[in-house]
Amino acid sequence: MHEARNTLKVYVETYGCALNRADSLIMMSEIERIGGLVTQNIDEADVIIINTCIVRRETEERMILRLKELRSRYVP
């Protein structure tokens, strides 16, 4: 009898240019290829990936705030 295997659920949030969006699609495809599940619901995710770049200062500041928000919400 096989043991039940938990599927890792991954949420991907993407900011920036078309290249970032393409990179996120590649990541999501690889996650699914190795047996993970990409979820649109951040609350059910085991892993949160934020894919961004910080070419502009305002984007960098916005991403720092987003990461702080996620940390306070999901990291004990």
Describe the structure in your own words:
With 76 residues, the chain is of the alpha/beta class. It has one domain (9-74). The protein is built from two helices and three strands; from the N terminus they run E-H-E-E-H. A three-stranded parallel β-sheet has the order 2-1-3, covered by helices on one side. Helix 1 links the parallel strand 1 (9-14) and strand 2 (37-38). It is flat. The N and C termini lie far apart (36 Å).
Outline the secondary-structure elements.
Blueprint: E1 9-14, H1 18-33, E2 37-38, E3 47-51, H2 57-74
Parallel strand pairs: 1-2, 1-3
The main β sheet shows up as: 3 strands, parallel
Q: End-to-end distance, in Å?
A: 36 Å
The helix content is 40-55%
Strand neighbour order, sheet with most strands: 2-1-3
Low-confidence stretches: none
Structural class: alpha/beta
β-strand number: 3
> H/E series, N to C?
EHEEH
Strand content: 15-25%
The domain tally reads 1
Principal-axis shape: flat
Q: Count of DSSP helices?
A: 2
Top keywords for this entry?
single chain, 76 residues, alpha/beta, three-stranded parallel sheet, 2 helices, 45% helix, 17% strand
Describe the structure concisely:
The protein is of the alpha/beta class and 76 residues long.
